[in-house]
Amino acid sequence: MNAALQQTFELLLIIGIGVLLQKKLPKKESLGGVKTLILSVALPATIFIALLKIKLDQSLLFLPLMALVFNFSLFFAMRYLMKFFLPIKKGSKKRTIMMLLPSLAPGLSCFPFIMAYLNEDALALAALADVGNKVFVLILLYILAMYWYRKRAEDQTETSNSSKLKRLLLSLLNEPINMVIVVALVMLALGWNLGTFPEFLQNTIGKLSVMMMPLVLLFIGMAVRIKWSDLGAMLQLLGWRSGMTFLITGFFLLLLPGLGKSMTLLLLVFPQSSCSFWPFAHMSAVSALEHKNAGTKPTFDLDYAINILACSLPFSTVVIIGIFYFGDTVTNATTCFVMGGIMLILTIVPNAFKVKSKRTLRDFPWSVKRKA
Predict the structure, then answer these.
(1) H or E segment at 246?
(2) CA 365 to chain CA mean position, Å
(3) What is the pLDDT averaged over residues 93-105?
(4) Is 107 in contact with 258 (CB distance < 8 Å)?
(5) Contact in structure between 225 and 23 (CB atoms under 8 Å)
């Protein structure tokens, strides 16, 4: 079996095991415990190792910058263009979408296929590009989540500025992820890396990090509650994301002509990665703060976020495998624009049918109330 397909089946199988565990474990207690392990142990260890492995070469700085530009491009496209394609009302769901859709998780959905279809050099370039994505999902999206939380909390409660600042600082210090990021950045500034620690500590951090992927996939499987009626809406949302990604990639290809086949494929598949789990970690941190303040309405819809994450992985996997399968056929800007346009049109079609069916029903004689 192809190594990339095998990796995909492994990831989906772990999610499937999580789905089976839904009936075996109590909902709130089990999910709360797994989420605590992820946010307080596995995720901080993974972030710590990832940050300390960052080694930037000046000649390759354009890769993380391009990834960061893509993140911002998709974020602003969602903010200003998505309303013309998908009727999503303002509120917790829209804020959840704006946190998740611009984020990328190439480690789960993209890197295995790059290794299988390309080579280790391409994988190293993808890992370097992921530095820009990490800056966006770890730092900028966290700031955005806290900004939305503080803004809504200020509207609902009246507190002094000093009290607001104190609560913000305490909430930042109480999060293991934030503490890990600060320590890692200080170590990088001093020229230290993971090898600075004793070997037993390196091994301990590494083993804690290994738990990250299976725990996240099991959590997604246990928490997901997708109704068949909602599956179509999820596919519309992810189809819009993929279509807009193709359009943005097409502009990149126009600006960077003469790229080799390997680099072009990398530019195509990397932005098609599934949504990252890290924005969900930020949203969970905000939810924990809101739980302490009973009167605060939820800023994000965590159940909706889990459903997006669960659908995003297989969706991105299919798209990435398709890109590698067709190879030379899709490695040009024109094809990207065509594919992106088709996917965006397909997201409009279901809504157009709904509108048309409603109008048709109004025109039927039996739809009018009879007079007594």
Answers:
(1) helix 228-255
(2) 48
(3) 92
(4) no
(5) no
Q: Which of 15-29, 91-105, 349-363 has the highest mean pLDDT?
A: 91-105
Say which residues have a Cβ less than 8 Å from residue 60's Cβ, sequence separation at least 6.
125, 128
Report the distance separating Cα 272 and Cα 126, nearest Å: 12
Q: Summarize pLDDT for 270-317 with one digit per residue, the tens.
A: 999 999 888 988 898 888 888 776 656 788 999 889 889 888 888 888
Q: Cα dihedral sign for 354, 360, 365, 370?
A: positive
Question: Rounded to whole angstroms, how far apart are CA atoms 234 and 223?
Answer: 16
Q: What is the pLDDT of residue 337?
A: 95
| pTM of the complete model beyond 0.85 | no
Q: What's the CA dihedral at 249, 250, 251, 255 to 10 degrees?
A: 100
Please identify which residue in the block is written with the tokens 């999503």.
88
Following CA atoms 342, 345, 349, 350 in sequence, which dihedral angle do they give, to the nearest 10 degrees? Answer: 90
Q: Given a cut of 60, is residue 33 above it in pLDDT?
A: yes
CA–CA gap between residue 268 and residue 332 (Å, rounded): 10
Of the listed ranges 162-166, 227-231, 255-259, 303-307, the least confidently predicted one is 162-166
107/74 Cα distance (integer angstroms): 19
Residue with tokens 């905000």, as numbered in its chain: 286
Per the listing, tokens 């192809």 go with 2
Handedness of CA 85, 91, 94, 98 (dihedral sign): positive
DSSP 194: G
The 3-state DSSP composition of the chain as helix, strand, coil percent (nearest 5) reads 80, 0, 20
Q: Can you tell me the distance from the alpha carbon of 246 to that of 280, in angstroms, rounded to the nearest whole number?
A: 25
Q: Are 46 and 212 in contact (CB under 8 A)?
A: yes
Determine the pLDDT at residue 361.
Answer: 44
| Backbone torsions φ then ψ of 328, nearest 5 degrees | -60, -25
| Residue 60, helix vs strand vs coil | helix
d(CA 145, CA 92): 11
Please, are residues 243 and 265 in contact by the beta-carbon 8 Å criterion? no
Pairwise CA distance, residues 332 & 329, whole Å: 8
